[in-house]
Amino acid sequence: MRSLLESHESGGAPSHATSEFFEALGLSPTSALVTVSDENDRKLQVAINSFSVRHHAAEALARLLLAVTTPRDATAPFSTWAAIADGPTALHAVATDLRARLSADEHLISRAFFMPGAEGSEQTRTVLQTAWVWVRRALFLLTDNDLTVNAADNKVKHGLAVSTRNDVRVDFIQAAELDENGGLPLSALEDSTPIFDRPSLAYLARAYPPQAQGLEVSSLLIDPPRVLAEAWMMAVVHAAVFHVAAQQHFGDSEAKIAPCPALHLRPTPDDLLADRVHGYRGVLTTPLGDSVVPRDSGLFIGGAFIPITIDFDGVMSTTIVED
Protein backbone atom coordinates (compact mmCIF):
# COMPACT_ATOMS: atom_id res chain seq x y z
CA MET A 1 0.00 0.00 0.00
CA ARG A 2 2.85 2.36 0.78
CA SER A 3 4.30 1.99 -2.71
CA LEU A 4 0.89 2.77 -4.24
CA LEU A 5 0.46 5.85 -2.08
CA GLU A 6 3.96 7.03 -2.93
CA SER A 7 3.34 6.41 -6.61
CA HIS A 8 0.08 8.33 -6.37
CA GLU A 9 1.92 11.40 -5.09
CA SER A 10 5.21 11.02 -6.94
CA GLY A 11 5.91 12.39 -10.37
CA GLY A 12 9.18 10.54 -10.78
CA ALA A 13 10.16 9.07 -14.13
CA PRO A 14 10.15 5.28 -14.62
CA SER A 15 13.39 3.57 -13.62
CA HIS A 16 15.38 1.23 -15.87
CA ALA A 17 17.02 -0.52 -12.92
CA THR A 18 15.43 -3.85 -13.83
CA SER A 19 17.71 -4.50 -16.79
CA GLU A 20 16.80 -8.20 -16.77
CA PHE A 21 13.36 -7.27 -18.14
CA PHE A 22 14.86 -5.65 -21.21
CA GLU A 23 17.44 -8.40 -21.60
CA ALA A 24 14.67 -11.02 -21.57
CA LEU A 25 12.98 -9.15 -24.40
CA GLY A 26 16.23 -8.67 -26.24
CA LEU A 27 15.73 -4.92 -26.14
CA SER A 28 17.74 -1.95 -25.06
CA PRO A 29 16.39 -0.02 -22.03
CA THR A 30 16.07 2.95 -24.37
CA SER A 31 14.20 1.03 -27.07
CA ALA A 32 11.28 2.91 -28.58
CA LEU A 33 9.30 -0.34 -28.42
CA VAL A 34 9.03 0.02 -24.65
CA THR A 35 6.32 2.54 -23.85
CA VAL A 36 7.23 5.11 -21.24
CA SER A 37 4.21 6.06 -19.17
CA ASP A 38 3.30 9.66 -18.47
CA GLU A 39 1.78 11.06 -15.27
CA ASN A 40 -1.77 10.36 -16.40
CA ASP A 41 -0.93 6.70 -17.10
CA ARG A 42 0.73 6.38 -13.72
CA LYS A 43 -2.23 7.79 -11.81
CA LEU A 44 -4.61 5.54 -13.72
CA GLN A 45 -2.51 2.49 -12.89
CA VAL A 46 -2.38 3.45 -9.21
CA ALA A 47 -6.17 3.80 -9.20
CA ILE A 48 -6.65 0.38 -10.83
CA ASN A 49 -4.20 -1.30 -8.45
CA SER A 50 -5.82 0.36 -5.43
CA PHE A 51 -9.23 -0.88 -6.52
CA SER A 52 -7.86 -4.42 -7.00
CA VAL A 53 -6.10 -4.40 -3.61
CA ARG A 54 -9.34 -3.42 -1.88
CA HIS A 55 -11.31 -6.16 -3.61
CA HIS A 56 -8.67 -8.79 -2.80
CA ALA A 57 -8.74 -7.69 0.85
CA ALA A 58 -12.53 -8.07 0.90
CA GLU A 59 -12.34 -11.53 -0.68
CA ALA A 60 -9.56 -12.74 1.65
CA LEU A 61 -11.50 -11.59 4.71
CA ALA A 62 -14.74 -13.26 3.58
CA ARG A 63 -13.07 -16.57 2.68
CA LEU A 64 -11.12 -16.72 5.95
CA LEU A 65 -14.21 -15.91 8.05
CA LEU A 66 -16.23 -18.54 6.20
CA ALA A 67 -13.52 -21.12 6.97
CA VAL A 68 -13.16 -20.31 10.68
CA THR A 69 -16.94 -20.38 11.16
CA THR A 70 -17.29 -23.78 9.47
CA PRO A 71 -19.07 -26.25 11.80
CA ARG A 72 -16.52 -28.66 13.24
CA ASP A 73 -16.67 -32.31 14.17
CA ALA A 74 -15.00 -32.55 17.58
CA THR A 75 -13.92 -36.12 16.84
CA ALA A 76 -12.11 -35.27 13.62
CA PRO A 77 -9.10 -33.03 12.85
CA PHE A 78 -9.91 -29.63 11.40
CA SER A 79 -7.83 -27.50 9.04
CA THR A 80 -8.71 -23.87 8.35
CA TRP A 81 -6.76 -24.02 5.11
CA ALA A 82 -8.56 -27.17 3.97
CA ALA A 83 -11.86 -25.44 4.79
CA ILE A 84 -10.84 -22.54 2.53
CA ALA A 85 -9.81 -24.92 -0.25
CA ASP A 86 -13.04 -26.91 0.05
CA GLY A 87 -15.24 -23.82 0.27
CA PRO A 88 -17.36 -22.45 -2.58
CA THR A 89 -15.52 -20.97 -5.55
CA ALA A 90 -18.00 -18.27 -6.53
CA LEU A 91 -17.67 -15.14 -4.41
CA HIS A 92 -21.42 -14.63 -4.35
CA ALA A 93 -21.80 -18.08 -2.77
CA VAL A 94 -19.04 -17.29 -0.24
CA ALA A 95 -20.79 -14.08 0.84
CA THR A 96 -24.24 -15.71 0.93
CA ASP A 97 -23.04 -18.65 3.04
CA LEU A 98 -21.14 -16.37 5.43
CA ARG A 99 -24.13 -14.06 5.90
CA ALA A 100 -26.35 -17.07 6.67
CA ARG A 101 -23.93 -18.42 9.28
CA LEU A 102 -23.44 -15.10 11.03
CA SER A 103 -27.18 -14.44 11.06
CA ALA A 104 -27.88 -17.85 12.58
CA ASP A 105 -25.36 -17.43 15.42
CA GLU A 106 -24.58 -13.90 16.63
CA HIS A 107 -21.68 -15.19 18.76
CA LEU A 108 -19.78 -16.61 15.78
CA ILE A 109 -18.32 -13.22 14.87
CA SER A 110 -16.96 -12.54 18.37
CA ARG A 111 -15.40 -16.02 18.54
CA ALA A 112 -13.67 -15.33 15.24
CA PHE A 113 -12.10 -12.11 16.60
CA PHE A 114 -11.34 -12.99 20.22
CA MET A 115 -10.12 -15.94 22.23
CA PRO A 116 -12.70 -17.36 24.70
CA GLY A 117 -13.16 -15.09 27.71
CA ALA A 118 -11.65 -12.00 26.06
CA GLU A 119 -14.79 -10.57 24.50
CA GLY A 120 -16.62 -9.28 27.56
CA SER A 121 -15.32 -5.72 28.08
CA GLU A 122 -17.08 -2.62 26.77
CA GLN A 123 -13.94 -1.58 24.87
CA THR A 124 -13.78 -4.99 23.22
CA ARG A 125 -17.43 -4.83 22.22
CA THR A 126 -16.90 -1.39 20.66
CA VAL A 127 -13.90 -2.65 18.70
CA LEU A 128 -15.94 -5.65 17.59
CA GLN A 129 -18.70 -3.37 16.28
CA THR A 130 -16.18 -1.49 14.11
CA ALA A 131 -14.67 -4.75 12.85
CA TRP A 132 -18.17 -6.03 12.09
CA VAL A 133 -19.08 -3.02 9.93
CA TRP A 134 -15.93 -3.67 7.88
CA VAL A 135 -16.97 -7.30 7.45
CA ARG A 136 -20.31 -6.04 6.15
CA ARG A 137 -18.48 -3.65 3.84
CA ALA A 138 -16.43 -6.55 2.46
CA LEU A 139 -19.58 -8.59 1.84
CA PHE A 140 -21.21 -5.61 0.15
CA LEU A 141 -18.29 -5.18 -2.24
CA LEU A 142 -18.48 -8.86 -3.19
CA THR A 143 -22.24 -8.86 -3.82
CA ASP A 144 -23.13 -5.24 -4.70
CA ASN A 145 -25.84 -5.32 -7.34
CA ASP A 146 -26.15 -1.55 -7.80
CA LEU A 147 -22.81 -0.74 -9.44
CA THR A 148 -21.88 -4.45 -9.81
CA VAL A 149 -18.48 -3.88 -8.16
CA ASN A 150 -17.47 -7.54 -8.27
CA ALA A 151 -18.14 -7.59 -12.01
CA ALA A 152 -15.87 -4.55 -12.31
CA ASP A 153 -13.08 -6.45 -10.55
CA ASN A 154 -13.46 -9.38 -12.94
CA LYS A 155 -13.35 -7.03 -15.94
CA VAL A 156 -10.17 -5.41 -14.61
CA LYS A 157 -8.48 -8.78 -13.99
CA HIS A 158 -9.14 -9.99 -17.50
CA GLY A 159 -8.98 -6.67 -19.32
CA LEU A 160 -12.30 -7.27 -21.06
CA ALA A 161 -15.29 -4.91 -21.46
CA VAL A 162 -13.60 -2.29 -19.28
CA SER A 163 -12.05 1.11 -19.85
CA THR A 164 -10.10 3.34 -17.47
CA ARG A 165 -10.44 7.10 -17.71
CA ASN A 166 -8.73 10.02 -16.03
CA ASP A 167 -9.84 12.75 -18.41
CA VAL A 168 -13.57 13.00 -17.69
CA ARG A 169 -14.95 15.90 -15.70
CA VAL A 170 -18.67 16.12 -15.00
CA ASP A 171 -20.14 18.96 -12.94
CA PHE A 172 -23.71 19.77 -12.04
CA ILE A 173 -24.36 23.41 -12.90
CA GLN A 174 -27.61 25.15 -12.10
CA ALA A 175 -29.03 27.92 -14.28
CA ALA A 176 -25.95 28.34 -16.43
CA GLU A 177 -26.39 30.58 -19.48
CA LEU A 178 -24.17 30.54 -22.55
CA ASP A 179 -22.84 33.84 -23.91
CA GLU A 180 -23.60 35.15 -27.38
CA ASN A 181 -20.79 33.01 -28.84
CA GLY A 182 -21.99 29.81 -27.18
CA GLY A 183 -19.31 29.89 -24.47
CA LEU A 184 -19.82 29.01 -20.80
CA PRO A 185 -18.45 31.66 -18.41
CA LEU A 186 -15.79 30.35 -16.04
CA SER A 187 -17.69 31.87 -13.11
CA ALA A 188 -20.51 29.36 -13.71
CA LEU A 189 -18.20 26.64 -12.36
CA GLU A 190 -17.61 28.42 -9.04
CA ASP A 191 -20.86 27.10 -7.57
CA SER A 192 -20.93 23.85 -9.51
CA THR A 193 -21.10 20.43 -7.84
CA PRO A 194 -18.34 18.04 -9.02
CA ILE A 195 -19.68 14.63 -10.03
CA PHE A 196 -16.80 13.01 -11.93
CA ASP A 197 -13.53 14.44 -10.63
CA ARG A 198 -11.44 11.30 -10.14
CA PRO A 199 -10.14 8.34 -12.15
CA SER A 200 -12.95 6.02 -13.17
CA LEU A 201 -13.59 2.51 -14.42
CA ALA A 202 -16.24 2.12 -17.11
CA TYR A 203 -17.41 -1.46 -17.64
CA LEU A 204 -20.13 -3.43 -19.40
CA ALA A 205 -22.07 -5.89 -17.24
CA ARG A 206 -25.46 -7.22 -16.20
CA ALA A 207 -26.91 -7.18 -12.70
CA TYR A 208 -26.95 -10.47 -10.79
CA PRO A 209 -28.40 -12.86 -11.83
CA PRO A 210 -27.12 -11.99 -15.31
CA GLN A 211 -29.99 -13.72 -17.09
CA ALA A 212 -32.53 -11.13 -15.95
CA GLN A 213 -31.51 -7.50 -16.36
CA GLY A 214 -30.35 -5.74 -19.49
CA LEU A 215 -26.82 -4.63 -20.27
CA GLU A 216 -25.47 -1.69 -18.30
CA VAL A 217 -22.41 0.53 -18.60
CA SER A 218 -21.36 1.64 -15.15
CA SER A 219 -18.66 4.13 -14.19
CA LEU A 220 -17.05 3.54 -10.82
CA LEU A 221 -15.08 6.46 -9.36
CA ILE A 222 -11.81 5.65 -7.57
CA ASP A 223 -10.10 7.82 -4.96
CA PRO A 224 -6.87 5.84 -4.26
CA PRO A 225 -6.13 7.16 -0.73
CA ARG A 226 -9.65 6.36 0.48
CA VAL A 227 -9.83 3.06 -1.39
CA LEU A 228 -6.52 2.00 0.18
CA ALA A 229 -7.78 3.11 3.60
CA GLU A 230 -10.71 0.72 3.11
CA ALA A 231 -8.33 -2.07 2.11
CA TRP A 232 -6.19 -1.37 5.19
CA MET A 233 -9.15 -1.60 7.59
CA MET A 234 -10.30 -4.90 6.09
CA ALA A 235 -6.72 -6.24 6.16
CA VAL A 236 -6.43 -5.40 9.87
CA VAL A 237 -9.65 -7.30 10.59
CA HIS A 238 -8.35 -10.21 8.49
CA ALA A 239 -5.09 -10.24 10.48
CA ALA A 240 -7.00 -10.34 13.78
CA VAL A 241 -9.08 -13.32 12.62
CA PHE A 242 -5.90 -15.02 11.37
CA HIS A 243 -4.20 -14.47 14.75
CA VAL A 244 -7.08 -16.01 16.70
CA ALA A 245 -7.23 -18.99 14.33
CA ALA A 246 -3.49 -19.55 14.79
CA GLN A 247 -3.81 -19.38 18.58
CA GLN A 248 -6.64 -21.90 18.55
CA HIS A 249 -4.63 -24.20 16.29
CA PHE A 250 -1.30 -24.11 18.13
CA GLY A 251 -2.67 -23.71 21.65
CA ASP A 252 0.08 -23.38 24.28
CA SER A 253 2.83 -24.66 22.00
CA GLU A 254 5.96 -22.61 21.41
CA ALA A 255 5.11 -22.01 17.77
CA LYS A 256 5.70 -18.41 16.73
CA ILE A 257 2.42 -16.65 16.04
CA ALA A 258 2.20 -13.21 14.49
CA PRO A 259 0.95 -10.71 17.07
CA CYS A 260 -2.65 -9.60 16.97
CA PRO A 261 -2.93 -6.18 15.28
CA ALA A 262 -4.56 -3.28 17.06
CA LEU A 263 -8.18 -3.15 15.92
CA HIS A 264 -9.11 0.46 15.25
CA LEU A 265 -12.32 2.22 16.24
CA ARG A 266 -12.09 4.54 13.24
CA PRO A 267 -12.59 5.03 10.40
CA THR A 268 -15.85 3.30 9.60
CA PRO A 269 -17.10 2.98 6.01
CA ASP A 270 -19.45 5.91 6.65
CA ASP A 271 -16.50 8.06 7.72
CA LEU A 272 -14.82 7.42 4.36
CA LEU A 273 -17.78 7.19 1.99
CA ALA A 274 -20.62 9.39 3.23
CA ASP A 275 -21.79 12.16 0.86
CA ARG A 276 -19.37 11.09 -1.87
CA VAL A 277 -20.27 10.16 -5.44
CA HIS A 278 -19.46 6.48 -5.93
CA GLY A 279 -20.39 6.13 -9.57
CA TYR A 280 -22.97 6.20 -12.33
CA ARG A 281 -25.07 3.38 -13.75
CA GLY A 282 -26.21 3.71 -17.32
CA VAL A 283 -28.83 1.24 -18.57
CA LEU A 284 -28.32 0.27 -22.23
CA THR A 285 -30.89 -2.43 -22.99
CA THR A 286 -34.22 -3.57 -21.59
CA PRO A 287 -34.47 -6.72 -19.41
CA LEU A 288 -34.55 -10.10 -21.12
CA GLY A 289 -37.70 -11.20 -19.28
CA ASP A 290 -41.07 -9.47 -19.65
CA SER A 291 -41.74 -9.83 -15.91
CA VAL A 292 -38.47 -8.16 -14.86
CA VAL A 293 -38.71 -4.54 -13.72
CA PRO A 294 -36.11 -2.48 -15.64
CA ARG A 295 -33.53 -0.58 -13.61
CA ASP A 296 -33.01 3.17 -13.78
CA SER A 297 -29.90 5.02 -14.85
CA GLY A 298 -28.52 7.31 -12.19
CA LEU A 299 -25.90 8.37 -9.66
CA PHE A 300 -24.94 6.69 -6.41
CA ILE A 301 -24.06 9.30 -3.75
CA GLY A 302 -23.36 8.11 -0.23
CA GLY A 303 -26.12 5.63 0.52
CA ALA A 304 -28.58 7.20 -1.91
CA PHE A 305 -29.48 6.57 -5.54
CA ILE A 306 -30.54 9.51 -7.70
CA PRO A 307 -32.26 8.51 -10.97
CA ILE A 308 -31.06 10.55 -13.95
CA THR A 309 -32.41 10.72 -17.48
CA ILE A 310 -29.98 12.08 -20.07
CA ASP A 311 -31.51 14.03 -22.93
CA PHE A 312 -29.19 12.90 -25.71
CA ASP A 313 -31.18 14.84 -28.32
CA GLY A 314 -30.55 18.04 -26.35
CA VAL A 315 -26.81 17.55 -25.90
CA MET A 316 -24.75 20.60 -26.81
CA SER A 317 -21.08 21.49 -26.96
CA THR A 318 -19.55 24.58 -25.40
CA THR A 319 -16.23 26.14 -24.51
CA ILE A 320 -15.40 27.46 -21.06
CA VAL A 321 -14.33 31.07 -21.38
CA GLU A 322 -13.15 33.72 -18.95
CA ASP A 323 -15.75 36.28 -17.89
Task: Please name the defining characteristics of this protein.
single chain; 323 residues; alpha+beta; 6-stranded antiparallel β-sheet; two-stranded antiparallel sheet; 10 helices; 42% helix; 14% strand; globular
Describe the overall structure.
It is a single chain. A hairpin with an 8-residue loop joins strand 5 and strand 6 (215-221). By secondary structure, this protein is of the alpha+beta class. It has ten helices and ten strands. It has helices at residues 2-9, 19-25, 39-68, 80-86, 91-104, 108-113, 122-143, 149-158, 224-250, 269-273, and strands at residues 162-165, 170-172, 183-185, 193-196, 200-206, 215-221, 277-283, 298-301, 304-307, 319-321. The strands form three sheets. The protein has a six-stranded antiparallel beta sheet with strand order 1-5-6-7-8-9, covered by helices on one side. A two-stranded antiparallel ribbon has the order 2-4. The model has no long low-confidence stretch (mean pLDDT 83). Helix 1 (2-9) runs antiparallel to helix 3 (39-68) and helix 3 (39-68) crosses helix 4 (80-86). Helix content is 42%, strand content 14%.
